[in-house]
Amino acid sequence: MSHEIHVIGGGLAGSEAAWQVARSGISVILHEMRPVRATQAHQTSNLAELVCSNSFRSDDAEHNAVGLLHEEMRRLGSLIMTAADAHRVPAGGALAVDRDGFSQAVEATLLAHPLVTLVREEIQGLPPEEWDSVIVATGPLTSPDLADAVAKLTGAESLAFFDAIAPIVVRQSIDFSKAWFQSRYDKGDGTDYINLPLTREQYEAFVDAVLAGERHMPKEWEGTPYFEGCLPIEAMAERGRRTLQFGPMKPVGLTNPHTPGMRPNAVVQLRQDNALGTLYNMVGFQTMLKHGEQVRIFRTIPGLENAEFARLGGIHRNTFLNSPRLLDATLRLKARPALRFAGQITGCEGYVESAGIGLLAGRFAAAERTGRRPMLPPITTALGALLGHITGGARAETFQPMNVTFGLFPELPAAHDERGREVRGRDRKRGYAMRARADLATWIASDAQLAAQ
């Protein structure tokens, strides 16, 4: 039996898990296969590389479940949140980061810790039996050998779905005689997003082009369902000609200074993607169009006629476990408890959610290594609600990847205002957040007291 805890996968979940183990005073060996073996989506060998968007979504801890998750992770010493805060770029009410600075900071911090050892190698198949405490955080791009081994061990097939990547535009190539800076509803400092307006005719032509555009669809992935929160624009357009207009191209909350008094029929938003402000990603424009088609079609958008693309969109395959059936309450594989799983492979969706589950997996493994029974976070917290969903709250028969949402939290006791009306909307969300903060504080204190005994 070895004293070290092994973490397989150096993405957001694996990096966070390794950090939590190390800061608990336990040695951790972090195994990352890049650059020994590349993936279909990564471009660097950096730990915690952001493959898709550079946004951690809303940072509103009062009225948004993901913002509340940000706060909870900060209070628990999250490496991912520390690096994100240090490398944030303007994004209105959202937390977006300079992707290179962020991943470099995560890697540098881990490598500087005396209890962390990084090994660049691929773990083919199941880890050795002598590794008695392992966190598998291989993400949506788990190597086939490891995925097949887990499937054989559990007797259950891993599910799969497509995840699409949005293009990135060079700011200098945007025509600002048509574009303008503004955050929706003027959140932030007003310069966080670049907006590109379309008339009704331009929007209709754009939808026609998207529907007719040639796509890249690897045959081995045919029949794989999409995750609803990350649909390619082609899939959205196929659901109806107005779907994009009510989704990533909605024109509400914006005022075009070039045409005062006239609201655009649709708007494409670009969000800052690096600290220098030289790169902007096309918000919600995940796509599987072929690269040549992307350039041709996206340059029909007003303001992008001469656009230079730093990265074009693409697709990769995501795999995830049927966690409600396969994992216990502390993320251990029921068929082999020495293996714990974390991140997107567990069926949580989103950067912060993946890192949050990695944080819990690291804390659970560390507690177990020191002879303590892991203490679960209250289900009334964002971390607890997400953990509860993937380890049993969801129905195994219909389990699909899930972002954190207040819909996963236990209902609040009926509350009414001074007029006797039931509290709803933002006030109710604030109630969820207040309860979560109080319960998290109690949990942190109790867990610390147990650790000190």
Helix content: 25-40%
Roughly how many Å is the radius of gyration? 22 Å
General shape: globular
Distance between the termini: 25 Å
Strand content: 15-25%
* Tally of separate domains: 2
Q: Could you please describe the fold and organization of this structure?
A:
The structure is a single chain. By secondary structure, the protein is of the alpha+beta class. It folds into 2 domains: 5-158 and 321-452, FAD/NAD(P)-binding domain, CATH 3.50.50.60; 164-314, Elongation Factor Tu (Ef-tu), domain 3. 32% of the residues lie in helices and 16% in strands. It has 12 helices and 17 strands. The strands form 4 sheets. The chain has a 6-stranded mixed sheet with strand order 6-2-1-7-17-16, covered by helices on one side. A hairpin with a 4-residue loop joins strand 4 (88-89) and strand 5. Helix 1 (12-22) packs parallel to helix 10 and helix 2 runs parallel beside helix 10. The longest helix has 28 residues, at 425-452. The chain is globular. The two termini are 25 Å apart. 47% of the residues are buried.
